[in-house]
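Two records follow; treat each independently.
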Amino acid sequence: MAPSTTVPTVADIEVPETLLKKRKQNEKAREERLAAAVAARKISKAKRKVIFKRAESYVKEYLSKEKEEIRLKRAARTSGDFYVPAEPKVYFVVRIRGINEIAPKPRKILQLLRLLQINNGVFVKVTKATQQMLRLIEPYITYGEPNIKSVRELIYKRGYGKINKQRIPLTNNAIIEESLSKYEILSIEDLVHEIATAGPNFKQVSNFLWPFKLSNPTGGWRTRKFKHFVQGGDFGDRETNINKLIRQMN
């Protein structure tokens, strides 16, 4: 006969109530996490579909606009007329001069436009008021009409958002959605479209974008930087030539 032992077996030992409760809680939390992850995946998949569809529609819109402009130019040429392009809706403004000897009024306008440093750039909607402001600060800035390519390159390469007064790089669409979802802006392509077409939420998008910090242009500025662009300098309105400058500074 085997000697009886006082050491209890595993089956005899009861699991403490607290440990059982903890196990149940952990199991429940794990199930909730898995369910939340599945739900999040579904939502992100649906969002991706919406974003892709929007991006496709934007590309179609840009192409049709480009084709229409070419058609109008050809029609004008064949009839012996001049084609006058539409007035620009958006300017890209770059500060090219420092803080020395600036009168109070231009200084205040530069602050309003958030152009606080040399080579800072911002998008500005073209209105009568903004045109008058740009005229007053013309010796300190250069500006022009950016095309879609320039807007996209600037936002993708040097785009930073203002979130809780902090400068946050736009590394994914979630950052944009968090701040601008109430304006139906979910992705970087929505940002580009809103800026390029001067959409109804241009003000909110422009305020969300931190002023662009650009480099000095490749090859440097012109010799007479503080003369007007049409006189061989750099400041003032350079119309579509701003796109060339953006390529050099981006």
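The next record belongs to a different protein.
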Amino acid sequence: MANTQQQQVNLTDLDLPALQQVKTQLEEELQHLTQSYTKLKGVQGRFKDCADSVDSLQGEQPEDKQILVPLTSSLYVPGKLSNVEKVIVDIGTGYYVEKSIDDASKFYKEKVDYVKSNMGKLEKNITDKQNSLRAIVSVMQDKLQEEQQKQSAK
């Protein structure tokens, strides 16, 4: 793992072009982090849907459970489940595993919790970047005000 050391710089020591460059970089990072957060939120929703679907199979009898089987994204045919004891779970990168209903439910709930934990870390990172961005904008405004006062004093 790469060892990244952060270097602290006093914002007031930077000139306006350097502050503008740092501001632009922070805005790009913030945009990327926000997009990542949105994607994680979608992933969390999909895992939650999977967990809910697996949970809906609990206690069902095979002959009782009618479903719609997707043939395409907008074409479905009616079907009946022949086995409600086991499901096939996509565990990632094209690998599928047969699991019991309880194991599949546990798997998806763990995934939801894992994504939620990562979203919390990402949220903190986004907040930190937003605070840094606000600080930079504030320093830039102060410097611009100083320049205007110097020019008006001449």
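Discussion point: The first strand starts at residue 66 and ends at 70. How would you locate this feature using only the token line?
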